[in-house]
Amino acid sequence: MDAGRKAEPAAMDRTSVERASDREIVVTRAINAPARLVFEAFTRPELFRQWWVPKSLGLTLLSCEMDARVGGKYRLVFRHGDSTMEFYGTYTEVVPHSRLTWTNEESGEGGAVTTVTFEEKSGKTLLVLRDRYASKAAADAGMSSGAYDGMPETFGQLDELLVS
Amino acid sequence: MVQYTQARLDDSFAALSDVTRRGVLEQLGRSDASITDLADRFDMTLTGMKKHVGVLEQAGLVTTEKVGRVRTCKLGPRRLEEVAAWLERYRRLWDARFDALELVVDELKCKEKIDGRRKKG
Predict the structure, then answer these.
(1) Topology classification of domain A27-151
(2) Which of A162, A107, A146, A114 lies closest to B90 in space, CA to CA?
(3) How many CA atoms are closer than 13 Å to the CA of B75, on its beta-carbon side?
(4) What ipTM goes with this model?
(5) Residues B71 and B102 occupy one common structural domain
(6) Which residues of A touch B42 (CB under 8 A)?
(7) CB contact (8 A) between residue B101 and residue A83
(8) What pLDDT digit, counting tens, does each position of B32-43 carry?
């Protein structure tokens, strides 16, 4: 089964994060697959739930509902110890295989708007995920703590810090 | 004691689950600020900001002190360095997440190949 394993070196940072403006954080990554497949992995809940919460987080995704149509909603529920947390919002743009925009409504004021673009070039997809915040202060916070989706990881790390 | 630790953890968990509260921590890492300053900065009502600061205070992330009519907020015993160290984790989180995405997409690619062969056959 080893033949199926990737031989490329793991040392390279293939994901980049940059502060594109006061209010924007941009994450970029090239994925070795056509855009339509990457888009599918973003919009079909049974696929999405397989990757959005990396196993290393020690966090359980209790449920994942998504209706990836303009005006459709999504809702993710996580368990962390005895608590649960929910992330939810609305899809505002859905252009198959090329563009996806959703709101992040769980934190009320200052919630980011996330736009993902899928740009295919010779069989690979350049994935650009853009979190646009309502204010610079909110973007600062998103960057330092990982915004809504970084929080699960953050909590895991925080637990380690607090326990030690 | 275990109960106590768990309660504190849950407090931090709740305190940090909000984008405004994370912004307040970031802000207080640069300088102390009054509740009024914070409310202005985050475009919020005084009452709204008081609530957020209350949650952070409860979690030990912020302390406040009232001098005259002004309540000044500063970072609590749980230091912001912990919060600042999250930046690289943010990138690592996305890296791990996209690694997992590649696996899912690889599987889709394989399935397509197999289905393609079946159709041809």
Answers:
(1) Alpha-D-Glucose-1,6-Bisphosphate; Chain A, domain 4 (3.30.530)
(2) A146
(3) 17
(4) 0.76
(5) no
(6) 109-110, 135, 137-138
(7) no
(8) 999 999 999 999
